Amino acid sequence: MSEHETIVDSATRRAAVDSFGAEVVSPLVERHEHVMSPDVLCDVIEQAHAAGLLGAQSLWESTDFGVSALRALAAVNGGVAFALHRLALAQWLVARLGLDHTGAPPALSLQGHYGFGRQALAKLLAGRGLAEADTALLRDYFDPARDRVVVGAPWASVLVAVFDGREVGWLLADRADCAVEPRPHSHGFDELLTATVRTTAATTVTDTAALAEALYLDHLGMTAIAAGLVDHSLVLARAYAGGRRQGGGVIDQYPAVAQMLGTISATARSANHYLASFAAKTPGGEALAELAGVRALFHPAVCVATNNGMQVLGGRGYMQDFGLEKLVRDANTLRVLGGTPVELNLFVAEWERGQ
User: pTM, whole model, 2 decimals?
Assistant: First the structure.
């Protein structure tokens, strides 16, 4: 394929993403106070397959396309973007590991039952020697018989990272072989299903490097989704501020409102640089450490930006009808998925300590 054909193909696929967001997802989430049901989400996922966002050419076929597509989809609805991100990442990982799997993409559990593995995960991914305490922690952390939180779309199988005392292994378990306990929505991402999962299925393959690569793409996807939430917040806040009159003028002319709009815009602009830089990197442990450090700073800024969007609307911002309060809840939920800022910083510190 020539360079021109590659550019045209990329443009065509991005146009398909925009069309999918505008024609399929947007009408379903126009009423912000209505929660998308699991059946509707399943239908959306089927249409994503038809649009080429899942399947042979999924979102994560290339990092550039994955980042661009997820940001655009999250600017329509963050929950749908997250569901498609995890399904596409699971497809990528199944292919990366050479697993024999057909049918719907599995759910994905890359991390253990608490936090980001403390210092032991950084040592493992860096290929450094593990102390006895590190090995014990990782065995417990990755124990498939302990609760593992799965967030995403309805699923029939799950791909789980485990630890055999030396390397990371992968098991692909049918839902029938898992103990599954559905959980109510804790805060945001109302469209998604959350469950704790336990399984005793056998390990299929060992590949520690695949975990570092998958974690990198997972965090890159979440960063792109966070940027999309900011984009959405800016659109809603600008539209309201540009039409709302108070005290004799349109409120976007007032310094306090302009400052909040500027904060949201600055966060969106910073995302442009972060995402362009990280989309060009090769997935792996070193790239993950760098991204973890950036995400530890960027995501709290995302929470501030979406909150500023809500504040632009004043009291109306807290009402479900206007959508800003949902963006705040989604941003706060995304902030702790994959590791809180504190945990990400601890990962970075331990990674760098051994260099």
Answer: 0.95
Cα(232)–Cα(129) distance, integer angstroms? 45
How many Å separate Cα 6 from the centre of its chain? 26
Residue spans of the domains in the chain: they are: 3-97, 107-207, 210-353
The CATH fold of domain 3-97: Butyryl-Coa Dehydrogenase, subunit A; domain 1 (1.10.540)
CB atoms within 10 A of CB 237: 28
Whether 43 contacts 153, CB under 8 Å: no
The per-residue pLDDT for range 207-229, each reduced to its tens digit, is: 999 999 999 999 999 999 999 99
Highest-scoring range by mean pLDDT, 138-147, 259-268, 331-340:
259-268
**pLDDT (0 to 100) of residue 22:** 95
Output the CA angle 200-91-174, nearest 5 degrees.
25
What are the tens digits of pLDDT across the range 288-328?
Answer: 999 999 999 999 999 999 999 999 999 999 998 899 999 99
Check whether domain 210-353 has CATH 1.10.620.20, yes or no: no
Residue listed under structure tokens 């005290």: 247
C-alpha 71/C-alpha 347 separation (Å) is: 25
Rounded to the nearest 10 degrees, the angle between the axes of helix 63-74 and helix 3-20 is 20
